[in-house]
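dumping this here so i dont lose it
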């Protein structure tokens, strides 16, 4: 007999999975048959990855072209499945991650062994662990607050590591950790200390897509083109410039002005461009198209474009990481195994066709390897009220269904609830809504409740 939660998990996932099945129900004529719902890969554009990104994945992840495509498709599906399980497991949920050359294995962690049958019924592996993700995230939040009042240069990086079910603190001096944990009221039983000699720093002289210059002096990189109403511009790293700083393009033509910038604390900024510049949904010309901003799952492949080192790829190691630079602590960044060098700062991180964030800083280089952090794009868009320029087209300000709360241009977090067309839906994966991604049309992103 199934445990009550197991039955709930199975029921929710059966409903979610049914949305992917073509030709639901019977019909008297082919013309009246409902159209099959898009797969997660189709929704997120994983089946349209550009050649440059696939080539970088082949080189850096040791894949052939077919494996690279399969990996992106598997990662898109894993995100949808993990999102549905997160909702069903509730407080038991302890994280999810993918593994394998093609990301074919999705593991979902829970604190209740009775959830295992439901997780396995969804096609994922189950891991029973001690701490729920909510407890680890809460402990990390306390560390973030404590860092505002402490010198954390000896403990420059901390993050929730879901595969080990722990809050990891990287430290150059192990003796500095107890005082940090005490000041944050964090239980040492939640923490795993990792010795590290890394000295993360902002990558000031880097470009992701195209180079731009700040006040005719330092150089950074355009992250992702955006709009704010009729104003066009781009997102980039906060450490690149302050509000009011002027920018020129790689061609040294007057380009725009920083409208907002946060650093440290976060590493986000946006620049409003003048009428000579047009926002496009591309990274480095036409080599990579941006179709959305759905957050990638831990373990997923992610690639970065920079003028110094070109395309380089790796994996998402941890979300919601805090890292201390000489200027202060940055919270909420994503830790990756992608390398970077001076000249790549502020530039684009992308997984498949989904924008992930803008290059913040890191350690190492692209000869020996390194660790790079990026500021996630969705919080940046939400903070400044920006709309990502994507290949989907349509009016970014287009309202949702009359009488519903869903609206294009809104950044939704996993677990958010909206109404649309008379139904209620819960968000499975964080993303910025756009025309064509209405809840009934994208079961990879929304589940009807």
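and the seq i came up w/
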């Amino acid at each position: 007999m199934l445990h009550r939660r197991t039955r709930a998990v199975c029921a929710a996932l059966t409903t979610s999975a049914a949305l992917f099945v073509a030709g639901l129900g019977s019909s008297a004529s082919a013309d009246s048959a409902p159209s099959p719902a898009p797969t997660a890969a189709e929704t997120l554009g994983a089946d349209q990855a550009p050649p440059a990104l696939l080539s970088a994945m082949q080189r850096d992840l040791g894949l052939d072209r077919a494996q690279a495509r399969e990996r992106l498709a598997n990662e898109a599906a894993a995100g949808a499945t993990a999102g549905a399980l997160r909702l069903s497991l509730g407080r038991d949920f302890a994280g999810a991650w993918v593994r394998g050359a093609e990301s074919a294995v999705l593991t979902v962690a829970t604190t209740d062994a009775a959830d295992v049958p439901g997780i396995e019924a969804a096609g994922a592996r189950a891991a029973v662990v001690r701490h729920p993700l909510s407890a680890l995230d809460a402990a990390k939040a306390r560390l973030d607050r404590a860092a505002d009042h402490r010198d954390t240069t000896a403990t420059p990086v901390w993050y929730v590591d879901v595969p080990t079910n722990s809050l990891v603190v990287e430290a150059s001096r192990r003796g500095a950790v107890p005082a940090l944990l005490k000041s944050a009221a964090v239980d040492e039983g939640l923490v795993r200390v990792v010795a590290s000699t890394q000295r993360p720093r902002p990558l000031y002289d880097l470009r992701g897509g195209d180079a731009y210059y700040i006040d005719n002096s330092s150089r950074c990189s355009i992250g992702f083109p955006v709009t704010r109403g009729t104003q066009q511009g781009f997102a980039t790293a906060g450490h690149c410039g302050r509000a009011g700083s002027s920018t020129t393009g790689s061609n040294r033509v007057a380009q725009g002005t920083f409208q907002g910038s946060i650093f440290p604390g976060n590493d986000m900024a946006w620049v409003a461009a003048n009428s000579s510049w047009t926002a496009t949904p591309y990274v480095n010309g036409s080599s990579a198209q941006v179709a959305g901003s759905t957050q990638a799952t831990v373990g997923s492949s992610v690639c970065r474009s920079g003028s110094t080192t070109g395309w380089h790829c790796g994996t998402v190691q941890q979300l919601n990481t805090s890292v201390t630079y000489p200027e202060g602590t940055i919270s909420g960044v994503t830790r990756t195994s992608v390398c970077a060098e001076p000249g790549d700062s502020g530039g684009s991180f992308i997984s498949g066709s989904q924008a992930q964030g803008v290059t913040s800083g890191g350690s190492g280089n692209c000869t020996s390897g390194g660790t790079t952090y990026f500021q996630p794009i969705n919080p940046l868009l939400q903070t400044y009220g920006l709309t990502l320029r994507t290949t989907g087209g349509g009016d970014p300000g287009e309202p949702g269904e009359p009488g519903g709360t869903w609206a294009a241009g809104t950044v939704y977090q996993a677990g958010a609830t909206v109404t649309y067309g008379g139904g209620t839906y819960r968000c499975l994966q964080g993303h910025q809504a756009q025309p064509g991604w209405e809840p009934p049309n994208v079961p990879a992103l929304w589940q009807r409740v």
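The helical segments are 4-18, 40-44, 51-61, 65-89, 116-121, 133-147, 177-184, 377-384.
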